[in-house]
Amino acid sequence: MFPLEEISTCSSYRDPHTILYNILSGSESGYLNNKLKKRNATNCRCEQRRTVCLKDPDSTCQVASSVLVKTICFVRSLPSFSQLPSGDQSSLLRHCWVPLFVLGLAREKIVFEVTDVPNSSILRQILLGPGLPGKESEQPTLAGVHKLRSCLHQLWDLDLSPKEYAYLKGALLFNPAIQGLSASLFVEGLQQEAQRALQEVIHLLHPNDAPRFGHVLRAAATVQTISHGLVTELFFKPVIGNTNMLHLLTEMLFVQ
User: Distance (Å, rounded) from C-alpha 117 to C-alpha 184?
Assistant: First the structure.
């Protein structure tokens, strides 16, 4: 049935004279760069809360959009998926598109770089702290990006074949635990079928690697922890702006 396929009030900012002097003297950029180097060395928690964006959004967003289109095409190509009620199809895609997208990034070996969000004033962050209200609080953090990269490297280390990727996508897509499914028993059967097919192909391709199936399932569980907000804001917000991502996905799913 499946085709093969932060800057914060941490200890490094305890000298207010140094901070204000550098800001008022117009050397904020050089000062910030020096502080970033020190924070990288100490790996303090405020560093992980830094808000970031893509370093090259034009090319990276284009690649991400291509991966998303391929992901939707994969879902639509599954006869078992098209047999489900449209409401169940929407629910499954809404809850599972991020894990499927991350698998797509992994399969195509997509790498990306991030940088600090521009126009993020050091004085503003010092005064307001890391928990900024509004749009800035929705920005991807360095910690979130590290988590995503860790997932990708975990999948790359497994060196999955196209068949393994395809059946793993099926196992993630058909999730009977999603609330409100009208055909949950059918979805559960499809997930079990995908998991059996995955286990069989792993045994066929790696007969001497008994723990591999468990490693693949653990990698899949990690992929499911990546937040929708991180993926949307990092890879798609620069392109779609304020367009609702879920509405866009639904349109892509049911377009004729």
Answer: 42
